[in-house]
Amino acid sequence: MNKIQREFLLEGLGCANCAAKIERRIKKIQKITHADINFATKKLTIESDAYELEETIKEIKEIIKKIEPHVQVVDKGKKECFLDKNNHYGANGDCCGHNHAHDDQSNGSSGEHYHEHENFNKKEVIALTSGAVLFFIAIIFQFNFWIELLLYVVSYLLIGKDVLLKAIRNIFRGEFLDENFLMTIAGISAFVMKEFPEAVAVMLFFRVGEIFEGAAVNRSRKSIEALLDIRPDFANLKTKDGIFKVSPDEVNIGQDIIVKPGEKIPLDGKVVAGASMIDTSILTGEAIPRKVQVGDEVFSGAINKNGVLTVEVTKGFRESTVSKILELVERASSRKAQTEKFITKFARYYTPSVVFVALMLAVIPPLFITGATFAQWIYRAAIFLVVSCPCALVISIPLGFFGGIGAASKNGILIKGGNYLEALNKVDAVVFDKTGTITKGVFNVTKKIAVNEFEEDEIIYYAAYAEYYSNHPIAVSIRKSYKGKIQEELMKDYEEISGHGVKVIVDGKVVLAGNKKLMKKYDIDYKEIDELGTIVHIAVDEKYAGAIIISDEIKEDSAKGIEQLMKLGVKRFVMLTGDHKKAAEGIAKEVGIDEVYAELLPHEKVEKLEAIQKSMKGNIVFIGDGINDAPVLARADIGVAMGGLGSDAAIEAADVVLMTDEISKMATAIRVAKRTRKIVWQNIIFSLGVKGIVMVLGVAGMANLWGAVFADVGVALIAILNAMRVMKDKG
Q1: What local confidence, expressed as pLDDT, does residue 465 receive?
Q2: For position 506, what pLDDT does the model report?
Q3: In degrees rounded to 5, what are phi and psi of residue 401?
Q4: What whole-number distance in Å separates Cα of residue 11 and Cα of residue 74?
Q5: Which helix (H) or strand (E) segment is 656 a member of?
Q6: I need a surface site. Which of 184, 289, 439, 497 has the fewest CB within 10 A?
Q7: What is the β-pairing status of strands 427-432 and 290-292?
């Protein structure tokens, strides 16, 4: 059955609890196979049966309207928008109909149309100010009972009008267990007990706190957006009629674009004219600019520092590096961490349970405790109700995890979900591929050993023909070492033998080129070579001709990265490679790895990894190049691809992508994960701790509604501000 994915922007979404409710309801729609709301970016992503899609979308909009009436649903699947500094354009340059200049949430109290948000804010400020003035007049000056009551009632209505209206609307919709309902009950309870100043003060505190809370959420969202502000705004398209500023998604593969100093490179491509220094820190986290010239690849999102570059576009905007990074980071929210899932589930049962306990508190004690009054215990129950709102948790936890993913992205690390970010806290072992991970993967022929009357030139000749069709770095180094021209017509019956090497007929002679397993397979009496490096044995017409020694250079960062991982508590380091045992052991010793398994076939790497997993309690990380190691990456608890910049295969294969070729980035990823977890748990303990204390004090008659509102709004505000700290992580 055809599946289709659709994305919506939920403009004005400011309530995390409501976002969770919307997500749950949408998931129950029959034709929806997947739904996720990213509260940090206000995006809803659905996967649905293509059949009757419009009916499904209509049902989704009805659900959102019922739970959050002020939220505007923008269907991003219908029209993709191109953003410049001041306006939004569709792909054809037309305005796409929504204004992001006022893309702030309404703090949960707007029933007005979203595009009137700026005017609504002015009205809200006037109402709050007027209500506050009347409230302070009633407190400061002495009036008779009825005038005082009138002042308090009018100030209460001015301050809390929107809360009351929303509570009433939600009751009729069956959505009454929210903070608006709880605050309304608390206020009415205070009025019933003739605690007029407290009733108004609590509502004023709540509304002011709500505004600050909304501002904090928006600030955190903007911080995340700033971390991910890598999308290019425009492209200078070069045509025969001149240079035109266009949307990046209007440029086709093969067209030329001009990138001026200070501009972001809008699309992936190859430099065809000019030379410059480019800053890739926004993609890789590396501060040192690199030089590019004619023939070099450049990636979208990088910043051109000085020269003017002419770039031939090699990938469309949707397939460009910057688009893939943004898509991965934004979709990371769909893979929620266990802590996040627990808090969402906990919130579903927590509030109803507290409401039930509050009801019991209001009714049972006055019936059984001597001297207890219903008014007294209704007030205590009201405190219980106000405290019960789980906003602090359901807002701050997703923001914390998404902020952690954003902070990692800023350091050149793509983490594909909160679940992987959380899993990085419990890494016991790191398993490495060798080539391209610990070593640079840049090979050079360092020695040629000819035997049995063969010459060195002959063995490099046969090896170059045998490796002609391979793109492996070892094959490239052999062809580079051969100075002659390869004539394809001399070759026939080319056969690649997986994990062994190559068999091919060259100019009528059967040539074998590969490892010693290949020699054993064809019963060739080969010579054991005791040299450091990768050894390629050559046989011609079943006669051993000699060997070629190829050396790879260890990355400068490898030993330092492994040392950092050790300091972070990783207990075991293992190398899995198909390379020669002696070469592998020499490299492992140099970088600080004790455990080496060499000369492995692809399926044997998977078997070794599974054996390591059985012997370890924590998570196993496998770090490879993301291309040849796909089976092992998939089998590991956390698959990490190295050098993801420009590599589609690496980005697709792994759970975590290190955009540079540095192992130390793995240590950075673990540090970001540990910091994120620490902040998330600070928020959980602080929020539940304060709420628990206020609940107990409220039942004991030692807390008032002021304390209850602080335990709700104040704690939420502090938790949000605390969650924002993770975004400042520099690795």
Answers
A1: 93
A2: 92
A3: -65, -45
A4: 7
A5: strand 656-658
A6: 497
A7: unpaired
CA atoms of 160 and 184, how far apart (whole Å) = 9
Cα(first)–Cα(last) distance of the chain, in Å? Answer: 44
- Looking at residue 429, its pLDDT comes to 94
Whether the Cβ atoms of residue 458 and residue 465 lie closer than 8 Å to each other: no
For strand 309-313 and strand 256-259, is the pairing parallel, antiparallel, or unpaired?
Answer: antiparallel
**Residue 433 designated active-site:** yes
Q: Which helix (H) or strand (E) holds 278?
A: strand 276-279
Residues of the chain scoring pLDDT < 70: 1-3, 50-52, 76-121, 174-178, 220-221, 223-229, 285-287, 330, 332-334, 626-628, 644-651, 729-731
Does residue 301 contact residue 325 with C-beta atoms inside 8 Å?
yes
Contacts for 79 with CB less than 8 Å, ≥ 6 apart:
90, 91, 96, 97
Q: What angle do CA 266, 269, 474 make, to 5 degrees?
A: 140
Q: How far apart are CA 143 and CA 120, in angstroms?
A: 33
Q: Which helix (H) or strand (E) holds 422?
A: helix 418-423
Q: Residue 298: phi, psi to the nearest 5?
A: -130, 155
How many CA atoms lie less than 13 Å away from 378 in the CB half-sphere?
Answer: 14
Contact (Cβ atoms closer than 8 angstroms) between residue 729 and residue 409: no
**What letter would DSSP give residue 264?**
B
Is beta strand 43-49 parallel, antiparallel or unpaired with respect to 3-11? antiparallel
C-alpha 19/C-alpha 181 separation (Å) is 17
Overall size of the chain counted in residues: 731
CA distance 587 to 571: 20
Q: Is 470 left (phi over 0), alpha (psi -120 to 50) or beta?
A: beta
Residue 386 is predicted with a pLDDT of: 79
Contacts of 136 (CB under 8 A, 6+ apart): none
Find out whether 630 and 648 touch, Cβ atoms under 8 Å: no
pTM higher than the cut 0.85:
no
Tokens of 219: 């600030």
The SS3 call for residue 3 is strand
- DSSP secondary structure letter of residue 710: I
Task: Give me the catalytic one of 178, 249, 433, 625.
Answer: 433
Distance between CA atoms of 347 and 341, rounded to whole angstroms? Answer: 10
Residue 299 per-residue DSSP state:
-
Residue 15 CA to residue 429 CA, distance in Å, equals: 40
H runs (alpha helix) in 111-241 = 117-140, 145-173, 179-192, 196-227
In angstroms, the CA 631 to CA 576 distance is 13
The Cα 9–Cα 154 span in angstroms is: 38
**456-464: Cβ within 8 A, 24+ apart:** 456/546, 458/540, 458/545, 459/538, 459/545, 459/546, 459/547, 459/548, 460/548, 462/506, 462/509, 462/511, 462/513, 462/538, 462/540, 462/545, 463/513, 463/536, 463/538, 463/548
